[in-house]
Design goal:
The chain is an alpha/beta fold. 36% of the residues lie in helices and 26% in strands. It has ten helices and 16 strands. The strands form four sheets. Strands 1-2-4-3-5-16-6-15 form an eight-stranded mixed beta sheet, sandwiched between helices. It has a four-stranded antiparallel beta sheet with strand order 10-12-8-13, with helices on one face. A two-stranded antiparallel sheet has the order 7-14. Helix 1 packs across helix 10 and helix 3 packs across helix 10. The chain is elongated, with a radius of gyration of 23 Å. It starts with a helix and ends with a helix. The protein binds zinc ion (2 copies). The site of one zinc ion has 4 residues, from loops.
Length: 387
């Protein structure tokens, strides 16, 4: 059972939606144009209910099957773009300076819309399919915002499924991993306060550049010396700001970075050790360090049975040998993890072919993936809600 025939017919229409979203990227919660277009389309498909404004700019469509059934399944896509200047030559290139769909959320939104159109047309299932379009996946926790607005309870969602395109996996193939599949991500900001002064007289002050450098070094001992070597963890300091010239020791430097892991226990260890290392190192040099440790997305955990189920649906669409159900875990993060904390479900990757990487200025979602992704969604809903 390859691509659903009717979906093949919709390919051109879904592609046109995708390219329209691509040309008009919006960031985080400011996805007003996109969410309005999504809501309009869902209404035009004849969804039983369309709710806008969940999690500020999220949209939900309700589609009831024509067979009796009480089960409710949620299918989720993300709508936001990134603050990147696009460097592609496509005709539908971003029309907004400094913003582009570099993560393929334009494709995710279009594919789920295509599925909604098909499901509302055919309704060949028992129970209810809920299509969820969230804002602010890229660091804004839009999934959590929709949940805080009552998403799961209001629609009685029992299971949730998500999908992300993946450069390097061939078109028409899927990949998934059971259990912890993507990392928790916490953000670290360190403000080091010393005593600034003349570069020729360092003994008059407390050198924040030296203290900041020592903190960067010491932090690297956490993963190598405190975390069990068979567990995954990474700490990256990605910003080091301080000083303005070559003969003044700055009073203040700021470091920022990220701490990621695949286990809640290791996550707690990182949090504890980062504080000890930052404060201890600063004290050693007579400086003060203020640490802001902001909790980000949780570990994304694919529930065992739904993962097997999702892989089975993908095999139906793609073919038996074109679904890898032992894909490696990644230290990237996804806010769909919030939904998977509350409901069982699974997050699958769909091949984007040989494209530039995610978040690269030359990245583009591959429209050839549309029939596979949309067929996956409709088969998943029909199978989960078979009655
Ligand atoms: Zn992204
Ligand atoms: Zn993404």
């Amino acid at each position: 059972m390859p691509i659903v025939n009717r979906i093949a017919d919709l390919h051109a229409e879904i592609t046109a939606w995708r390219r329209d979203f691509h040309a008009h990227p919006e960031l985080l919660y400011d996805v007003h144009r996109t969410s309005a277009a999504v809501a309009d389309k869902l209404k035009s498909f004849g969804c039983d209910d369309v709710v806008s404004g969940m999690g500020r700019t999220g949209v939900v469509g309700v589609i009831r099957g024509r067979k009796p059934g009480a089960k409710v399944v949620g299918l989720r896509a993300d709508m936001d773009a990134l603050p990147i200047e696009e460097q592609t030559a496509v005709a539908y290139k971003s029309t907004v300076p400094g913003k582009m769909h570099a993560c393929g959320h334009d494709g995710h939104t279009a594919m789920l819309l295509g599925a909604a159109k098909y499901l509302a047309e055919t309704r060949n299932f028992a129970g209810t399919a809920i299509v969820i379009f969230q804002p602010a996946e890229e660091g804004g926790a839009g999934a959590r915002a929709m949940m805080q607005d009552g998403l799961l309870e209001r629609f009685g969602i029992e299971e949730v499924f998500g999908m992300h395109n993946y450069p390097g996996i061939p078109i028409g193939e899927f990949a998934i991993r059971r259990g912890p599949a993507m990392a928790s991500t916490d953000s670290i900001t360190i403000d080091v306060e010393g005593v600034g002064g003349h570069a020729a007289f360092p003994h008059w002050g407390v050198d924040t550049i030296l203290v900041g450098s020592q903190i960067v070094n010491q932090l690297q001992s956490i993963v190598s010396r405190n975390v069990d070597p068979v567990q995954a963890a990474v700490i990256s300091i990605c910003m080091f700001q301080g000083g303005h010239t070559d003969n003044v020791i700055p009073q203040h430097v700021r470091l920022r970075g990220t701490a990621r892991t695949l286990s809640p226990k290791v996550r707690e260890l990182l949090r504890k050790r980062v504080r000890e290392v930052v404060e201890g190192t600063a004290r050693l040099y007579g400086a003060k360090a203020e640490l802001t440790y902001a909790t980000g997305y949780p570990v994304l955990v694919n529930e065992e049975h739904r993962t097997a189920f999702a892989a089975g649906v993908a095999r139906e669409i793609a073919g038996k040998d074109r679904v890898n159900d032992d894909w490696p875990a990644l230290m990237g993060a996804e806010d769909f993890a919030f939904m998977l904390e509350e409901r069982p479900g699974a997050f699958i990757y769909i091949g984007n072919g040989d494209s530039a990487g995610l978040h690269h200025p030359a990245y583009n979602f591959n429209d050839e993936a549309i029939p596979y992704g949309t067929s996956y969604w409709v088969r998943l809903a029909e199978t989960a809600l078979a009655g």
